[in-house]
Amino acid sequence: MTQPILQVRDLTTRFRTDRGVVTAVDQVSFDVAPGETLAIVGESGSGKSVTALSILGLIPRPAGSIDAGEILFDGQDLLKLDADAMRAIRGNRIAMIFQEPMSSMNPALTIGKQIAEPIQLHQKLPWKTALGMAAELLGQVQIPEPASRLNAYPHQFSGGMRQRAMIAMALACKPQLIIADEPTTALDVTVQAQILDLLKDLAQRLGTALILITHDLGVVARYADRVAVMYGGRLVEMASADDLYRQPRHPYTRGLMACVPRLDGDTSQALVPIEGQPPDLTALGPGCAFQPRCALAQAQCRVTRPMLRTTGGRGLSVHLNACHLQETP
Ligand code: SF4
Hints:
GO terms for molecular function: ATP binding; ATP hydrolysis activity. The protein is of the alpha/beta class. It has helices spanning 48-56, 83-89, 101-104, 111-123, 127-140, 146-149, 159-171, 189-206, 217-223, 241-246, 251-258, 299-303, and strands spanning 6-17, 20-32, 37-41, 64-73, 76-77, 94-97, 177-181, 209-214, 226-231, 234-240, 309-312, 319-321.
């Protein structure tokens, strides 16, 4: 079996707020292998973006803190690194792509400078070589006439081109892991598909692991190899994408599937929204976080937290589910 490049173990991230302590990520564990795409899905506030920020060492302090767990990247625990060591990994061996490139790009610097600088910094190359590589990367992400675009500023690019340039920036140092947080949400559907096709293709060709954070199950079905479903800061189900779509087991995952139009055009099944609101993380009870919205909830669900258990498969194809009603294999 391929050795995972990333192993997250019992990650617990909390924030101190005026309303109390929020456990935004609660004992979350998962692995990602080289060349694999893991999608993390869930509603807003489910903990998916905070999981990403925890891996990147970007939890704002002192309000936030990682209180427990390990984040093993290529065998090294990122939580034990100091700020300088983490900076050397971030943007180099681990790259990120955010939803809105304008908020991550410097509007006063040319695209070429923004791509070439990390190459020069991390790979210690002469400026001319780094700039040549930046043009090559713009070509790889299918920006026409890449050499002449090096001198353009971000505002001179369309939204789709900016996101392509972000992917070029992310790939600049040949990272082993890319974390893409809702990378195409702000784009129209056609451009979204082009960008995700490109990202997946490049990641596979380069053997880069990809964590795709999204609330869009259509994106998950098309691009993910495996899926981790989060609810209330907890991982509630994880499986290969095929297995999850064929046999969703957790009531929340089934609820998510029931409110998405079917890709095969079958309109015989009505779309069913999940009743209720996402949980207030300052007031979670001792039981299942989904219990107030779950039609199948029983007395036990209010008092005992269901832990993730194997319900089939093995290795990276294991199917895990955290529900008291699950059948054991
Ligand atoms: Fe529903 Fe209980 Fe399963 Fe939670 S543990 S999802 S409340 S049945």
